[in-house]
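Quick one: structure for this chain?
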Amino acid sequence: MSYCRKEEKDYIIFTTTEELTSPSQIEKVSPDTEDIDGIITPEGDINWDCPCLNGMADGPCAETFKSAFTCFFYSEADPKGSDCIEQFKLFSQCTIESSDSSNLEHNKANDDVK
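Got it. Here's what it folds into:
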């Protein structure tokens, strides 16, 4: 009979040879495709509403992000995405410029309060 115990940060699992050599009894359950919030839709497209993108597909750099991410997603280059460097440079520049303007606006708002 198998069992597991925790010692500090580690888990120690004890099992028998029989259990290790017999076929698994675990059944994989397919999730309902309507409940999937993944990056890829069931049709194989990019899900721009995926929470995993953390809002990158919206906002001031959305178009450059989408361009870079789409390029990487469909890239067949070796290594993958090596043909997307220019798109990622544009996205990076956009985020820097956006960050700079946000900081200017934030600083100006703070100056107005003083």
